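Supplementary Methods. Inverse-folding protocol.

Structures were first reduced to a discrete structure-token string of length 285. This string, shown here, constituted the complete conditioning input.
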């Protein structure tokens, strides 16, 4: 039977008491800690850093940072905002001699997985999650392994990866706050490689209505709108229903359009719109 103890340190050192163990941490000057370029999935949030810096100067304490050592460099694995806040407090004249840090154990994939699931940092956006999931897939992880590690569904992982693999114009819109990641994902699922153009059209419609962001409501209105002649013509060309033969007549460019209508035509309202407008519009194009 184990003897009584007066501190956790004594309990951890008591071999007869298995319920308490000691976790080693180190006190490191924050100016010795380095940020690994391109590793942190969360870009530093200046407002969050300022709030944490003020809290430190008012006596708050934060959990230890996670670090690794590589070629005599102490690199941050988790705790980038805490580190930035400490440096900010030092710049403002507050004396911080050291931060508590723990040595992270694991390989490159483990570091990414730890960063994704860390509860101490700001939450990752859907796009940021997708980028990190793709890194893990590059390390050989399956969608199921990623989902199990993060407590998510496999479909969630696949959706975020699909968002991360979208074209750069979609990423630019999401990063600029012009559309949410979840709304952008729905556009990608519906329109594939044309998602960026659809988002841009939605943004123009939103601005026309006095809004600054594309919302699912804006996109729903766009999808229900009557197709433009150009959209109808693009659809007919894709279906092989239109053959255009350029010619010159009286100095104007004229297109002779032959429409071959199959027995079963999808979206007959598109065809009707095109024919109606063509019959009433005689201006050269």
């Amino acid at each position: 039977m184990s003897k009584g103890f007066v501190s956790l340190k004594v309990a951890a050192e008591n071999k007869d008491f298995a319920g308490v163990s000691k976790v080693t941490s180190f006190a490191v000057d924050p100016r010795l800690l380095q940020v690994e370029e391109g590793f942190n999935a969360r870009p530093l949030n200046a407002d969050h850093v300022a709030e944490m810096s003020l809290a430190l100067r008012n006596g708050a304490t934060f959990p230890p940072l996670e670090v690794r050592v590589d070629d005599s460099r102490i690199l941050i694995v988790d705790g980038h905002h805490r580190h930035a806040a400490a440096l900010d407090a030092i710049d403002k004249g507050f004396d911080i001699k050291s931060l508590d840090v723990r040595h992270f154990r694991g390989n490159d994939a483990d570091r990414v997985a730890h960063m994704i699931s860390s509860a101490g940092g700001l939450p990752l956006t859907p796009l940021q999650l997708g980028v990190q999931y793709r890194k893990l897939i590059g390390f050989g992880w399956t969608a199921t392994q990623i989902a199990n590690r993060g407590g998510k569904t496999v479909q969630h992982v696949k959706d975020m990866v699909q968002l991360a693999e979208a074209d750069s114009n979609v990423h630019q819109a999401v990063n600029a706050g012009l559309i949410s990641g979840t709304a952008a994902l729905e556009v990608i699922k519906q329109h594939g490689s044309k998602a960026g153009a659809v988002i841009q059209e939605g943004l123009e419609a939103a601005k026309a209505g006095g809004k600054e962001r594309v919302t699912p409501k804006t996109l729903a209105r766009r999808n229900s709108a009557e197709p433009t002649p150009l959209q109808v013509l693009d659809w007919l060309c894709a279906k092989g229903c239109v053959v255009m033969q350029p010619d010159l007549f009286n100095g104007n460019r004229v297109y002779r359009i032959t429409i071959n209508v199959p027995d079963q035509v999808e979206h007959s309202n598109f065809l009707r719109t095109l024919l109606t407008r063509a019959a009433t519009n005689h201006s050269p194009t």
